[in-house]
Amino acid sequence: MKSVCILLQNTYDVDIRVRRKAEALVAAGYSVDVLALRPPHLKSKTYSLNGVVVHTFSLGKKRGSRWRYYFEYLTFFFWIFIKLPVLTNTKAYAVIDVNTLPDFLVFATAYARWKGAKILFDMHEITPEFLMSKFKVGVNHWQVRLARFLEKASFMYADHVITINEPIQQLLASRGLLLSKSTVIMNSADQSIFASASNFSVAAGRGAISAEFVFMYHGTLTHIYGLDIALEAFAMAHHEMPTAEFWIIGDGPEKSSLERLSKKLGLGSHVSFIGPMLPTEIPGWLARCDVGVLSTRQDVFLDFSFSNKLSEYIIMGKAVIASRLKTVRHYFSEESLAYFEPNSPADLAKQMVFLYKDQELRARLADKAKREYAPINWEVMKQRYLELMEDLTSTSPDA
């Protein structure tokens, strides 16, 4: 049996992309270990989940300043640098799948690489743009220049590189990444989870919520996702949509400020902050909405983002209003999504009214989006990932 080790500076249970990859490998007959952060509720250092063995390190994620980020990155790096050789000596891994951030985590695989493992580098983010967006620094800031140096050194070191969409792949190619050395594995939702939404129920005590027409957002309540823009747009448009409600599902650092903004805008009972939900509840809630709202802000980093929530709405056959971001626009036409100019509540309000009043438009958008999503759905991405792993393991000395 071929063995693969996945490195992840996150809690494995909640990182859906990495879980999909790991469980796909197990189903294909691989032995899979994951080295990740320990969940707060877990005391055991090692546990098994759906056939994947997870080794954990208690570090937590208490990020705020960039220095806290660097502290966590370096601490996790050194744990991997020590832990991975121990496991390598017993498992003889064929492939080490390194998931960013940070980019330099890939160098913690030096011993495993020396022992013959292939290094697969899955770049979840583009670090220079992330720094520019997160910490409001310019392109010539020394930390951005250092990030670009480490980024290039990292993908040059790896045997193969995964990028999460084609615009990012092209951006990295402009920085020296060989296209022949890279593969796009998009962050698509697993449609099998949503195949029978009618079989899912919402959380007890919340099923009584109902409305004639529902706009919905589900996910983390944080500044980058522009929920304040969506609330302002809903306030502008609500007099033309008397039966509409806006359901906001999830939790996050912006929840209190969003609740205050909703109250200030006089939205009252027309906006519901439903709170966090279990992943198994998501399909049941999405089935009850009419339109998904993705009001992500635009900047040098977010322009390359592709929300997994978009995939989920499309799979569920829902029309979606989305910011006109570079990557989203790359994959979906004007006939599949109701685009609005990023950061513009007025333009978003206009699209809300259009979709509220036109059921046929909602149906056309949903149908077209589903057809355009077919070439990038998870079944396609999963097969692409498994073929890549087969190629890598077949050339490994231990294959």
Helical residue percent? 40-55%
Euclidean distance between termini CA atoms:
9 Å
What is the CATH class name of the largest domain?
Answer: Alpha Beta
Per the CATH scheme, the topology name of the largest domain is: Rossmann fold
Rounded to an integer in angstroms, the radius of gyration calculated over CA atoms is 22 Å
The name of the CATH superfamily of the largest domain reads Glycogen Phosphorylase B
SS content category = alpha/beta
Give me the count of strands: 14
- Shape call: globular
Sheet with the most strands, sense and barrel status = 8 strands, mixed
Number of domains: 2
Short synopsis of the structure:
This protein has helices at 16-27, 66-91, 110-114, 127-135, 142-157, 166-173, 191-194, 227-237, 255-264, 282-286, 308-315, 326-331, 345-357, 359-373, 378-394; strands at residues 3-11, 31-37, 46-49, 52-57, 95-99, 118-123, 160-163, 182-184, 213-218, 244-249, 271-275, 291-294, 319-323, 338-340. It is α/β, with parallel strands linked by helices and 399 residues long.
Secondary-structure topology with pairs:
Elements: E1 3-11, H1 16-27, E2 31-37, E3 46-49, E4 52-57, H2 66-91, E5 95-99, H3 110-114, E6 118-123, H4 127-135, H5 142-157, E7 160-163, H6 166-173, E8 182-184, H7 191-194, E9 213-218, H8 227-237, E10 244-249, H9 255-264, E11 271-275, H10 282-286, E12 291-294, H11 308-315, E13 319-323, H12 326-331, E14 338-340, H13 345-357, H14 359-373, H15 378-394
Parallel strand pairs: 1-2, 1-5, 2-4, 5-6, 6-7, 7-8, 9-10, 9-12, 10-11, 12-13, 13-14
Antiparallel strand pairs: 3-4
